[in-house]
């Protein structure tokens, strides 16, 4: 399965952009392959992200491994802090 990071390329929120870049940077530095899915380009991707998150108002970034929901940015940060990133990503 592939780790998918649902993100948006269109946002006025600097915090959201920084959070997305932090996820990309950490996954890249740890050589964890991932697919970046831009929800701003396709509403079906946004609907899929929200369905997997189980939250009809979920905002990016959201992380999944295949069809399995892993968590949002806060959960990602907590996994890094607890040194449990691989378990969080279900690798």
Instruction: Report the biggest beta sheet as strand number plus sense, adding barrel if it closes.
Output: 4 strands, mixed
Number of helices: 4
The rough form would be described as globular
N- to C-terminal distance: 9 Å
Strand order of the largest sheet: 2-1-3-4
As a whole number of angstroms, the C-alpha radius of gyration is 12 Å
Summing up helix and strand content along with how strands pair, one would put the structural category as alpha+beta
- Percentage of helical residues? 40-55%
Beta strand %: 15-25%
Q: Average pLDDT across residues?
A: 96
Low-confidence stretches: none
SSE string, helix = H, strand = E? EHEHEEHH
Total DSSP E strands: 4
